[in-house]
Design goal:
It is found in: Cell membrane. It is a single chain. The protein is mainly alpha-helical. The protein is 69% helix and 2% strand. The protein has 22 helices and three strands. Helix 5 packs across helix 16, helix 7 packs antiparallel against helix 21 and helix 9 packs across helix 14. The longest helix is centred in the middle third of the chain and has 53 residues. The chain is elongated, with a radius of gyration of 33 Å.
Length: 593
């Protein structure tokens, strides 16, 4: 993986710090050496002549000038009271936060390349991705006195709500537009790389795997701490608000730990689910093969498995006529079957079929075990296929075709194509892992340092810009700050979606849902900890309502479907202006805050 060069970013950073130093020295010198008077006695230059007879007249003629002052971050960072100046500072500090997010992202990927998934992918990567947002939220609540923190904490809430809404609306909808493919009519799954339907609202779209649905459900569940904190205001109670904040903090931290553990163990769970889906696919393939060899008469006139026909099939499989089907004969049967679009270990498939049939545990299948096993498989296929299409008759085997299509679709939605692509890739050892690890740690430290250093100035610039323009800080942070802290992640997701593949679409939307989940648990935990420790007032009803609406609507939307036609992008895009309008109406028309 190519590591981005650091030199241009460092030059920008050094140039900015140099301008800052010159600016602060100018302010200092201006304060120590005030400007001379315009009137001079002709001898002492610009100094005041206290003995001049006109001095008292000059004092009376001077017009007092009222100057507005701003407080410099760290005592030397530039500041201004003008709207244009603060807008410039927001751009500069926002770019630095974007730079920090980029370093953290690239360093995380290098670390993942060295250490692999598991602890790194489950614990460090999600936390590092949310670090810039968490830094800004922390700074917004720790600045100055309690009164100052209470006024600036809306910046943190605006960032929290803005990041969630932007990822689930603008970025989500854009990924649908750039990643759309033709949707196959038979199984409603998008065809990789095929985009001939143009902007057709229903025949073009994106498909994801079942694990992406699980990620969306987890995202929807992660809003529970918001409901807990908001509960006293929902019942119009002023008592117990701090207790609600503490309970919400405990629940949020618990959900953060649970989510990280899920991320750690998810690959193991995913492999188990995929192995089970492959076994079901093997079962459906064997049943279809036996159906063809029995001329479609696996069922009797009553629609029940025909045991006599099954016994005859046993005789055809028992090639050495010893009244047993051995593992070698079973493997020969499986090798002779053409399994569509499935890659599996034949020996493992034989072992699992043997475990299903061999009730006597003697490593071979007799006639009764074979009949019992095939009967059980047929009954399972009938139950599974009953929900898709009714059986047209006892002699027809339509339910087997339905069962086969169902297992094939389940196999695809569990990410089988992703596993096949990964198995086809050549796994190369990382050259010079010690140097790669050093660069990864250096990037992580540099990104963390930049985020920690410039979070406070960015919050101050947003606060000053709000004061200069009379625009509420929430709306500034809602719109502007997510562009800085999430732009690297957003651009990466959009570029990944343009590959127009089932695998990349699944990864793209899973990362979006994961980022929102980390906002709802990690960033909210930081926010609630600051509110509780500093004794701030929780008064964000409209903001919480927006987060709940967007997360629940998009979460419910993505939890129960794996294919998203093009028309679904319009719902996501409309939710963004709806969120802004809803906060404005609730706060400034109905006076919620």
């Amino acid at each position: 993986m190519a590591v981005p060069t650091v030199r241009p970013q460092f030059l920008c950073l050094v140039l900015f710090l140099a301008i800052t130093a010159v600016h602060s020295r100018f302010l200092s010198s201006s304060a120590d050496n005030p400007s001379p008077d315009l009137v001079s006695d002709g001898v002492h230059g610009g100094d005041r002549n206290l003995t001049s007879p006109y001095y008292h007249l000059l004092l009376k003629s001077e017009v007092p000038v009222v100057t507005e002052s701003c407080e410099q971050s760290y005592g030397f960072m530039p500041c201004t009271t003008t709207a244009l100046g603060n807008f410039f500072l927001i751009i500069v500090y926002g770019y630095l936060m974007f730079l920090a997010a980029t370093y953290l992202s690239n360093g995380s990927e290098l670390l993942l390349e060295i250490l692999g998934p598991g602890i790194v992918g489950g614990l460090f990567l999600p936390a590092l991705g949310a670090l810039p947002d968490a830094m800004l939220i922390m700074v917004s609540g720790l600045s100055g006195s309690v009164e100052t923190a209470q006024s600036q904490v809306s910046v943190g809430m605006g960032l929290l709500a803005g990041s969630t809404v932007m990822l689930l609306t603008l970025i989500w909808g854009t990924c649908i537009l750039v990643g759309k493919c033709d949707i196959r009519e038979t199984d409603s799954i998008a065809i990789d790389g095929q985009d001939t339907k143009g902007m057709h609202l229903t025949a073009s779209g994106v498909s994801t795997d079942i694990w992406t649905c699980y990620a969306a459900r987890i995202m929807a569940i992660s809003v529970i701490p918001f409901v807990i904190v908001q509960f006293p205001q929902m019942i119009h109670s002023t008592a117990g608000r701090q207790v609600a904040v503490l309970i919400g903090l405990v629940v949020s931290v618990s959900m953060l730990i649970s989510y990280c553990l899920y991320q750690v163990f998810q690959p193991w769970v995913q492999r188990r689910r995929l192995a089970f889906a492959k076994h079901k696919h093997v079962i459906s393939g064997i049943l279809k093969h036996l159906k063809q060899r029995s001329l479609g008469r696996l069922l009797d006139d009553d629609g029940e498995p025909d045991r006599e026909v099954i016994r005859k099939l046993f005789g055809t499989i028992d090639q050495d006529k010893d009244n047993y089907v051995s593992a070698a004969e079973l493997k020969a049967l499986i090798i002779g079957i053409t399994f569509e679009e499935i890659n599996f270990d034949r020996d493992d498939a034989v072992a699992k079929v043997m475990s299903d049939f061999d009730s006597s545990l003697d490593a071979k299948i007799d006639e009764n075990e074979f009949v019992h096993g095939i009967t059980k498989w047929l009954n399972e296929a009938k139950r599974a296929g009953s929900g898709t299409a009714p059986d047209a008759g006892p002699r027809t085997m339509k339910f087997l075709n339905d069962y086969h299509m169902q297992t094939k679709r389940e196999h695809t939605l569990l990410g089988a194509e992703q596993e096949t692509e990964q198995s086809d890739e050549v796994i190369e050892e990382v050259e010079n892992p010690r140097w790669i690890s050093f660069k990864a740690v250096l990037m992580l430290m540099l990104g963390s340092a930049i985020a920690g250093a410039f979070a406070d100035p960015l919050v101050d610039a947003v606060d000053n810009f709000s004061a200069a323009t009379s625009i509420p800080t929430f709306f500034i942070s809602f719109i502007a700050l997510p562009l800085a802290t999430n732009s690297s992640e957003a651009v990466s997701a959009i570029i990944f979606a343009t590959r127009k593949k089932f695998r990349t679409a699944s990864l793209t939307f899973s990362e979006l849902y994961g980022a929102v989940t980390m906002n709802n648990v990690l960033c909210l935990s930081v926010f609630l900890a600051i509110v509780y420790i500093r004794g701030l007032v929780w008064d964000f009803s409209s903001e919480v309502l927006v987060i709940l609406i967007v997360c629940l609507v998009m979460g419910a939307f993505a939890s129960f479907r794996t294919t998203f036609p093009l028309w679904t992008a319009s719902i996501a895009f409309l939710l963004y202006p709806f969120s802004l309008a809803l906060v404005y109406v609730l706060d400034y028309v109905f006076g919620w805050s």
